[in-house]
């Protein structure tokens, strides 16, 4: 007789050593809801003994498939390994009768882009400093053969509300370890506009997909709008696969040539020619002392519009999974291969 979904869940969980051997309520008082997802809610929680404020992500098991649980366990195992000042810290994980609960570091500064659009003065140097930190944390998990696969503005969070707050990289839900004995990853996943050409083509890929995403983020930070944009997803994907983007005037007139060179390197269509995070950290734009301090008024204005549009569409532009990629690309991108 075939095992039920619940029995398969139980077997997976029994094999996993990541879960705490008790209920979360024994250690935490759950507070108000601070976020909601399709299958989860995030609450503020307080540790009963230490009074430390944490975030508790509660994921309903009823909505999960066996594949979802396997992916969840992978995410947890990756996060448990991460120990970096720019990565959200995972403290504990609980498997309760009807839900999984992840206890993580609590951050209250909001998203990085929200902070930037509130600024009255914004310069190329400030953008460079953000990108440098993002490359440093990316180099850290790439050294462990881990690919994030969903780097985007929504996943860059600030710890505090102060202007110089440290950011934390969040959401390792698509993170995957690369087996160095294999050819690479093939699953098509990510977010439209930030996904690399090789992912769309269905070919094997590696850490370079994260570099491409950082290239997109850097472009947006410097001009306020994305390098690849089209409401028609098929046309968007075609532009991404061709690497078609422009440094438009007047928005790029005040931006240095070294910054443009830096972006071109990251948005190289041929992944084998795309520099690693370690190499990019040695780029002149990152190491140079003469990065522009001119007020980027046009970029700030564009970024405010982009940020408002991004938030408006957040509910409808969900992170795409393999099937969504294939549905969106099957007619106009015939070479996209099935994922595994």
Automatic annotation (TrEMBL):
Binding-site residues for ATP, renumbered to this chain: 61
Highest taxon of source: Eukaryota
EC number, UniProt record: 2.7.11.1
Keyword ATP-binding included in the entry's annotation: yes
Domain annotation Protein kinase: ranges: 28-286
Protein keywords: ATP-binding, Calcium, Kinase, Metal-binding, Nucleotide-binding, Repeat, Serine/threonine-protein kinase, Transferase
Keyword Electron transport included in the entry's annotation: no
UniProt similarity note: Belongs to the protein kinase superfamily. Ser/Thr protein kinase family. CDPK subfamily.
UniProt name for this protein: non-specific serine/threonine protein kinase
